[in-house]
Amino acid sequence: MTDGFVDVPAEKGKTKTCPSIAVYPGTFDPITNGHIDIVKRAFSLFDKVIVVVAMHPGKKALFDVKERLQMIRDCFPPDENRVEVEEVRGLLVDFAHQKKASIIRGLRAVSDFEYEFQLALMNRKLQRDVETVFLMTGFRWIFISSSIIKDAARHGGDISGLVPKHVQRKLAEKFSTS
Ligand code: COA
Question: Which class would CATH give 21-142?
Answer without folding.
Answer: alpha beta
